[in-house]
Amino acid sequence: MKTGNPRLSRRAAAEHAPAAAARAAAVPHRATPASPSVIEFRGVEKRYDVGAIGLDQATFSIGRGEWAFLVGSTGSGKSTIMRLLIKELEPTAGSIHVAGRDLSEITHKRVPFYRRNIGVVFQDFKLLPNRTVHDNVAYALQVTGGTRKEIRAKVPDILRLTGLSTKLHNYPDQLSGGEQQRVAIARAFVNHPPLLLADEPTGNLDPETSIGIMQLLYRINRAGTTVLVATHDNSMVDKMRRRVIELSQGRIVRDEATGLYVRDESTREFAVRMRDGLPETSPTVEHS
Amino acid sequence: MRLGFSTREATRALRRNAAPSFAALATILLTMLVIGVFIPIVQATTGAANDVRKRVLVDVYLTRDAKQSDVARVRAQLLETSNVKRVEFVSKQEAYQQQRQKDPEAFALLGANPLPDTFRVTPENPDDVLKIASALAPEAAGGGTTPIDRSIDEVRTRRDDTTKILQVTRFVKLMAGTLAALLIAASVFLIANTIRLSLYARRREVEVMKLVGATDWFIRWPFVIEGIIVGALGTLLAILLLAVGKIAIIDPLASDFSLISAPETMSFGVLIAVMMVAGIAISAVGSGLSLRRFLRV
Fold first, then answer.
1. A96-128, pLDDT tens digit by residue?
2. Which of A32, A47, A188, B289 could form a disulfide with A119 if both were Cys (CB 3.0 to 4.6 A apart)?
3. What phi-psi label fits residue A15: left (phi over 0), alpha (psi between -120 and 50 degrees) or beta?
4. A51 touching B, CB under 8 A?
């Protein structure tokens, strides 16, 4: 597909030319190149008050239904991008469009309504400690004015999808890390947002649990949601073979798809492939 | 629907955060108790001070040969003087009788009545006493004073007594006012601080709510309602304690001490209403305002 090329060449100019050209040639195809972009960063710059650079001239776009990784060491700007996307921060320069909307045009008052279109998942889960699993997920619906009927219909559904049906009435501190992250994902996805952001979703989890979480995110992605995952788990990124945007000190130094995309892979195949190479392969617990 | 949701959220928060809620309740209970005791005390004190100030008068003595027409003329002049509130005439006979009652033996020895006709002038404001005196008897060029009417013999303010009374009562009122202001300021800070502490413990919760896309007021209402509930409960308990104290201690003593039953003290019912409104308003507004800091995400 040719449509991806202008973006690529523009990006290539920003990095070391020969290496980038070689890599650009190596990219076989993108997941959904022709689709309109859900996220569009144009020359975005973020400087913090103390003078630190959060993001420097970041330009990239992510298409609808695409899956992309943000990688880089701590302080490279991954979280800055996430926080810019949920409009927790304002860019110093440049423009950010999400689903065609310019974020700078969203007034402070409208921010909550904007955020309802984005699911967010964090490394530290960010669950409400005083609420049960069910109520945590239901809160996301109550915020949008969801009726009890809606809550009764949707919450058990999403909890079944995330494999938490038996933990409905547990409080977050009674759950394992993996289960808590599943609750967070359920809450992020219960409104079926078109975009899901995950900031180090597996940062606190062991490899086996991480795969389960990734499998869940993959399932959500396959349902048509654009997923952007920030991580520094390189082995995970390598195995997933998805688009990778690498940041270093606020600059985008790499933007490519690693290896071949496996486009129509079922969740189960995905899980098997991901577990391949783990020291001990346990049978798949989940069914897609 | 929204109100129901907010109320349910508020009661849930109260149950789940029992310790901080109890701390806030206790704070409001104590401050309201102190305020409830202090308001009547301040009022009784200023009431007593005002009573004393009312006794500040200007005495206008007429000459001994003043006739009925002179009396009428002087009365008219007194009434025209600015700052005068009331003019009371005490004839020599009345004065004589009053004094004789106080000290019958001395007056029996005197035989004739030595007292002049007198006007007692009550000022509009006790602080204006000296102004009235100098208006009635302007200072003459060579020192001393010259009354404005030839029938006035002398204008007396009991200057020393007057200034002393005015100073003391002014001081008492000022002290009471300052103490009341300090106390109210302290209560507001204490309550605000308690609320802020319990909110601080829940700032993560607020952060998460914002991330999920809750509007500021959606987050704020439960907190405000929580404040209303805590404020109402705390004030109610304080009022109960006050009522017990009033019935058990103050009422039996009231007949013996005029200060307690001072006329200008507000009635218990009004006091209760004021406390209730203040308690609820402070904690509700306090919750809503303190939350602002954490809503800036």
1. 999 889 999 999 889 999 999 999 999 889 998
2. A188
3. beta
4. no
Beta strand residue intervals within chain B, DSSP E: 58-62, 84-90, 118-123, 152-156
Q: Does A142 touch chain B if contact means CB atoms closer than 8 Å?
A: yes
Distance from CA of A286 to the nearest CA of B (A): 27
All residues of chain A having their beta carbon less than 8 Å from the beta carbon of residue B13 are 130
Task: List the single residue in A86, A112, A130 with the smallest CB-CB distance to B214.
Answer: A112
Whether chain B has a CB inside 8 Å of the CB on A90: the answer is no
Handedness of CA A236, A241, A244, A249 (dihedral sign): positive
* Spatial CB neighbours of A253, under 8 Å, sequence gap ≥ 6: A15, A246, A247
Q: Which domains does chain B have, with CATH numbers?
A: 2-52+166-295 (no CATH), 58-157 (3.30.70.3040)
CB B210 to CB A129 under 8 A? no
* CB atoms B12 and A144 under 8 Å: no
Is residue A239 one of the residues assigned to a domain?
Answer: yes
Residue A188 falls within a domain, yes or no?
no
Torsion of CA B190, B192, B194, B196, to 10 degrees: -150
Instruction: Let me know if residue A146 belongs to a domain.
Output: no
| Lowest-pLDDT choice from A212-216, A219-223, B81-85 | B81-85
Count up the domains in chain A and report the number: 1
The tens digit of pLDDT for each residue in B158-212 reads 767 777 877 888 888 888 888 878 887 887 787 778 777 777 878 888 888 888 8
Contact A254, A246 (CB under 8 A): yes
Q: What is the pLDDT of residues B52-110, one digit of tens each?
A: 777 778 888 888 888 888 888 888 888 888 888 888 888 888 888 888 887 777 777 77
Instruction: Report the pLDDT averaged over residues A32-52.
Output: 80
DSSP state of B222: H
A97: CATH: 3.40.50.300
Query: Which of A121, A125, A128 to mutate to test binding with chain B, by most B CBs within 10 Å of its CB?
Result: A128
Closest partner residue to A115 (CB to CB) among B13, B213, B216 is B213
